[in-house]
Amino acid sequence: MTKTPVLLRASAGMLAVLLSACGRGLPDAVPEGYERVGDHVAIRSEAARYSANRHVVPAAELFDEGDYTLFKLRVDCRDQFATESGARFGADGTFRGEVAARNWGKLDAAPRLRPAAEKLCALADDSRFVDNPDDDRAVMALLFADGHDNAWAVWHGPSAQDRAETSPRHVQILKKGRYTEGNRSFAYVITGANDPECTANACDGGILGAALFEQVDNRWKLRRHDPVVDVVGEGGRLPPDGFVRVLSADGQPPLLAIEWRIMKFGDGFGGLGVYGFVGHHFKKVLARAGWADTTGTSDCSDHGSCTRYATSLALGGAGGAWPELVAHRTGLDHIEGRAMHVDERTTYRFDGKGAYLDAGKTANNRPVVVPTPAQAEAMATMRPVVIDAVRAAWAQDARFRQVEILGLELEPESDAVYRGVLDARQAGQAHQYRMRIDVRPGPEYAWAFVTD
After folding, report:
1. HSE-up (13 A, CA, CB side) for residue 13
2. pTM of the entire structure?
């Protein structure tokens, strides 16, 4: 009995596929160590590296006559690719010449490479696990392919001097935590990337980023990585640690608040930003002005047009994943052309889509009282005396020993009674303490903190 060849026993459908493939003239030669992932491309998957959503793998583009090119393929998994320079070889391994690098561009411009890009992104997604999201070095190594040998990872991100360019960014973890949604467990890390090459005020600030992990069995899978969420601060750096706070309670999805301040030529301005995970992507959900200080300008010194206020941010009454936020602005501002002591509270509620919206404001503002020459002289005399007295009292109280007193603003109610606002900073946080000061014979000053 004569055996029928395997090819002849194949079904008609299989024959059609085989004949179609032959008709396309697929290259037979695949370089040693590479696996074909498309008609005209192969990769070395064991040599792939994954970093900050930009992954790289050795690749080979295959040509019909048996030639092939070897190069490194880079992808961002957002339909963008680039290649490093490489070399072209004949089917027998003969060197035929160099191949130029290709800058970042759309994958549509290189359809032969798309299967390799898709395969690399799939490998990256399947391999991005950590055993413990509290292991900072393992997390940084996964996100940025660095971090095992130093406290900072190094990543090439947008330059602080020119966002169209890239520069080495030193990245570290700012905040981290865990929370649950139903029966799903998540862990997050919030990263900050500073640009060591730029320290000038004209530069942009540091880069805020975040990553989200979900527990799968006994490991943690990277679900999202947003390396560039916002650029905040100045001089290539994020604001100091004391200006970066997690407002939400432990075990809740994070609401991160960042306050930024910039002072130029005696004119200071700043604001507040709040960030959270919306659809598992970290994004800005609230932005507003928050700080101003023009006391160093000529308008203030020469014309009395001075502005100096700050804003604190706290959780409101409603709880849950998106609690109310309350911004409390206090200080000195000009409203409708008149100098006013401002005391305003604005409530914000989440709209369910991705932003906090203004839900109402209450104000207890009052006009600034212009002191007489005698009152101005009295305030100049009492200011250092009262500051020293408060400092001495706080030195005896463990809660206030580390408080730095920045200044005391005074205003007369009468020749014998003055209002005061003591500006201070503790653990990087700005605080204001309202005071009442009574002038006694001598003169002596009886002071007390008050709540309006």
Report:
1. 0
2. 0.70
Distances (CA, A) of 145 to 111, 224, 305, 378, 384: 28, 16, 52, 63, 54
The whole-chain average pLDDT of the chain stands at 86
**What spatial distance separates the first Cα and last Cα of the chain, rounded to whole Å?**
107
CA atoms within 13 A on the CB side of 164: 0
Span 200-225, mean pLDDT?
89
35-54 burial, b for 16+ CB within 10 Å, e for fewer?
Answer: ebbbebbbbbbeebebbbbb
Q: What distances in angstroms separate CA 284 from CA 1, 274, 437, one per listed residue?
A: 76, 6, 43
CA separation for the pair 417, 202 (Å, rounded)? 45
Q: Is the dihedral of CA 27, 33, 34, 35 positive or negative?
A: positive
Structure tokens at 445: 């000053």
Confidence of residue 148 (pLDDT cuts 50, 70, 90): very low
Q: Are 163 and 157 contacting, i.e. CB atoms less than 8 angstroms apart?
A: no
Instruction: Name the DSSP letter for residue 242.
Output: G
Q: 6-126, what's its fold?
A: Lipocalin (2.40.128)
Geometric angle at alpha carbon 258, from 252 and 263, rounded to 5°: 170
Q: Which of 129-133, 258-262, 428-432 has the lowest mean pLDDT?
A: 428-432
The structure tokens listed for 365 are: 């503002």
Burial 343-371 (b: 16+ CB within 10 A, else e): bbbbbbbbeeeeebeeeeeeeeeeeeeeb
- Pairwise pLDDT comparison (156 vs 324), residue with the higher score: 324
Q: Is the bond into 443 cis (omega within 30 degrees of 0)? A: yes
Structure tokens at 3: 């055996």
Q: Which segments of 396-447 does DSSP mark as H helices, in order?
A: none
Please give the radius of gyration of the chain, using alpha carbons only, rounded to the nearest integer. 31
What does the domain layout of the chain look like in residue ranges?
Answer: 6-126, 131-367, 373-449
